[in-house]
Amino acid sequence: MLAQWGPAGVARFESHFAWDYGTLASYAVFGISAGRWVEQRAHVTGLVGPLLPWLLALAAIADLAENLLHQRFISAEIEQVAPMLFALASACASTKLVLLLSGPLLATFLLLRRNSVTTHRPMIS
């Protein structure tokens, strides 16, 4: 694929890494902060409570690994890259996307659940 992009396409791909590293750091910090806020606000207990703040940070680690692998691909002759590394980069990208989606969805569910519990109390007779 890199050969099809040509030197200009590869240079454009390379230029996005500086922005991407800053983005992954910011969503990791945001995820930890927001996850802790939701954990306290929704009174989350059990395994979900401690896990929620770290979902986006884990996504950032997967994104970091994906970026490092992509940088390896563009800095080496393609024949020198083990085929397993392409599968690993794909797994990192998939993991990142699952975690990026699951964090906000789980947080939304927990907040909605909390609101439904606090607003729909059974009447005492």
Properties at a glance:
0% strand; mainly alpha
What would your notes on this structure say?
With 125 residues, this protein is an all-alpha fold. It has one domain. The chain is built from 4 helices and no strands. α1 runs antiparallel to α3 and α3 runs antiparallel to α4 (83-119). The longest helix has 40 residues, at 2-41. The mean pLDDT is 86.
How many individual domains? 1
The portion of residues assigned to helices is over 70%
Largest sheet: none
Helical region count?
A: 4
Rg on CA atoms, Å: 20 Å
Q: Can I get a quick summary?
A:
The chain contains four helices and no strands. The mean pLDDT is 86.
Summarize the topology.
Layout: H1 2-41, H2 48-51, H3 55-75, H4 83-119
Helix pairs in contact: 1-3, 1-4, 3-4
